[in-house]
Structures are given as C-alpha cells and as structure tokens.
Amino acid sequence: MFKRLLLALAIVTPSFAAADRSCDTKFQKVCIETVQSGSAIAFYAENRYRLLPVTLNIELDVTNLQRTEGSSGPFVLNGNERVLLFTLSQRRNAAWSYSYTFTWSRGDITARHDDSYAYRLPFAQGKAFRVGQSCNGRFTHVGAHRYAVDFDMPEGTPIHAARDGVVVDLKEDSRSGGPGEDYQDQGNYVILQHADRTLAQYFHLRPGGVSVNLGDRVRAGTLLGYSGNTGQSTGPHLHFDVIRGSKTVKSETLPFRFATDQGAVRCPPRGTTLRAVR
User: In angstroms, rounded to a whole number, what is the distance separating the alpha carbons of residues 23 and 27?
Assistant: First the structure.
C-alpha cells in the first residue's frame, strides 16, 4: 500500500498552483496530493473509506527543502477525510527536489484499548466451537498479527458482535478462498469500531454473508453475518482480532480477553473448545 513519486525542479518555478495525486496501488483508498505553488509544496492526504479510520505514515527524501508547516506524522485520517499534512518550502535559491513513499494501515494508532473489557465469544449464546489457531499460531498469527483467534465452524454459522460498536467497514462480494497469500485480500468481513477507537475484525464470512450496514450501531450479541471460507483460509472458520493502526501496512493486533464458561480467557490454546455464556 505505498506509492513513490519523484519531482526535481530548477531554480525558476511556476507561480501558479500545480497538483499531483498518488493513491495506494492495491485499494485506491488512501491518496497523497501534492500542490505546488511557487517554491512551496503542500502535502494533503485523503481517506476514501466512508467510515474506516486509517493511520498514514509518509517518508520523505528532500534536497534544498524544509518542513515549514505541519508535523512528520504518523497521521490519523477519519473516514471520508482530506487534511493538510505539512508544507515544504525552498531553503535557498538553488535547485530542489523531493521524493516520498507512504504506507497506511486500518485503525487509529493513538487508540488505547480498554483492557478491563471481557469480550463475548463471537457466536450465539450456548454454542461451542474449537480454537483452530490462536496467538502466535504457525499459519498466519505471527508478528503484528499475533493476537488473533480462529474458530473452526461450519459455513453459515451465525456470527455475533463481541462488543458494542459501529460498523465502519464491510465486504461480502468475494467468492474466493484458499491457503495462499494470493487470497489474502479476498476475505469477506465486518469491522466494528469500539468506544476506545480500537477495531474488531470478523473475517472469512460467506458470500453475501453480512447482516449489518455501514454506520449501524450494534450492541454486543447483535447478529453481524454468517461464517464462511473466503480469503486466505484452509477451511471454514471465523477469524477474530482487535486492532489499532501502525506505522506499516500491517495493523497492530492487541491482546484481549474472552468471557467464557471457563472464566475470562486470553489467547486460548489451539484445540480448546469454548462455549459462549452471554
């Protein structure tokens, strides 16, 4: 999710404003716009997601330019927001140039998780399912993705909200799934934003398997959709994690606890069967 742009200009620069836009190559959802006016360049960022917050990080390589307004980031962009990041200005009367790269991730990097909260299990009360992969799993739950839990379950199992939140993003149009990384972006999902601005992700839903709409405010226990086998998946299951933004393309997963019939559980071991109690 990055783009690189290089501009090099001589001493004499135009007095009119000239704009250039560069969007991430994968989703075309986060864009950087540079607006040159004389020897000053203003950097704007746009988040094209309607409600999903993202964290943007931008790296600069400049010659004969200095930052005269704004900060170095990282920057948090709310849904459907366009903001001025910073302005670069010529340092002295000589040729100048700049290049940049940027990355973005889902979520707000400044979010602080409420560690006192015990999440419902993301399925119906009284139902029990086996943990197929847990924290630091061998398949995909590593590094920034290490705090996540997969529940093995038949396709079409009702999925319920684990915590109150707002639906900030969803996808249900994919029919593709498989174990390879080529399927990584093909999973159907629902993403909720919590009161502490962390996000909960419910992944691998079946095609057409979302039961909520963007902007819906839901309570813990609300039906969100139905499990499936879309995206990077070796079999029907639900992937659940809680995230915030980071300085890379990978959002940071956060440790959390489930309320179960065995008490509050963090990172339940692979092979454990958990029953929803509320």
Answer: 8
By C-alpha distance, which of 165, 169, 166, 167 is closest to 49?
A: 169
- pTM beyond 0.70: the answer is yes
Please state, in angstroms and rounded to a whole number, the distance separating the CA atoms of residues 180 and 234: 9
Report how far residue 226's alpha carbon sits from residue 238's, in angstroms, rounded to the nearest whole number: 9
pLDDT tens-digit profile of 247-264? 999 999 999 999 987 789
Identity of the residue numbered 200: A
Which residue, chain included where needed, has tokens 């927001």? 81
Q: Identify whether the C-beta of residue 201 lies closer than 8 Å to the C-beta of residue 243.
A: yes
* Of the candidates 101, 53, 30, 28, the residue with the CA atom closest to the CA atom of residue 246: 53
Phi and psi at 235, nearest 5°, equal 175, 165
10 Å CB burial of residue 219 (0-12, 13-18, 19+) is: exposed
Two tokens, residue 42:
């203003």
